[in-house]
Amino acid sequence: MIRVLLVDDDPLVRSALSLMLGGQSDIEVVGEAPNGEAGLALVDDTEPDVVLMDIRMPVMDGLEATRLLHSRPAPPAVVVLTTFDADDHVLRAVASGADGFLLKDTPPGDIVSAIRTVAAGDAMLSPSATRSLVSRLRDTAPTDRSTTAADRLAVLTERELEVAVCVGRGLSNSEIASELYLSIPTVKSHVSRLLTKLESTNRVQVAMIVHDAGLV
């Protein structure tokens, strides 16, 4: 069972999400919070696997809450769910440690799929968010970033680099396992080491480093 915490200042949104997710046999909504500060407190009480996090909220916004959450040991996965599809929001969400970024007009089935995806340890970005992220990366001068990225990747073993490139291509753990002839637990172990060695909080940040290095 995937335990989900809803953090959004709009009670109607929380109610709609709770109703939608309540119909899934493998998902349980374990709590709701109206802002990031209350959400952080509920994480301790409810121990969710996934947090659906709004961006703009009073008291503490979702980006700051996500950043603080990912500074903790073994944090839950976070999917940022927002009405704002802006380059800055995508980049800030990724930098804060979000494992997924979806717009609130995303079809319900895709939101459910995203929850299952991040709960399994993979990253999830909506197509529009991915386009925004890639567009921003392409518009930034690459020289310094590419050099820094190459230096960071130099600490990886050959196998870890292969896994990193697969992550950069957006492959899931099962797809990486199939392509590299590894077991899924082995892939998960490699990804965990990648996050540690590259000082990244999620797979999207790893993908950005691989992209900056020009490997995908």
Descriptive overview:
With 216 residues, this protein is an alpha/beta fold. Helices cover 56% and strands 13% of the residues. It has eleven helices and six strands. The longest helix has 14 residues, at 184-197. It is globular.
Widest sheet: strand order? 2-1-3-4-5-6
The Rg value, from CA coordinates, equals 17 Å
CA(first)-CA(last) distance: 35 Å
Q: How many strands, what sense, and barrel or not for the largest sheet?
A: 6 strands, parallel
* Low-confidence parts: none
Mean pLDDT, to the nearest integer, reads 84
Structural class: alpha/beta
Strand segment count? 6
Write the layout of secondary structure elements.
Layout (H helix, E strand, L loop, with lengths): L1 E6 L3 H12 L4 E7 L2 H11 L3 E4 L8 H8 L7 E6 L4 H10 L3 E4 L4 H12 L4 E2 L1 H13 L2 H12 L4 H11 L4 H8 L3 H14 L5 H10 L4
Parallel strand pairs: 1-2, 1-3, 3-4, 4-5, 5-6
Give the gist of this structure.
By secondary structure, the protein is an alpha/beta fold.
Descriptive labels:
216 residues, alpha/beta, 6-stranded parallel β-sheet, 13% strand, 11 helices, 6 strands
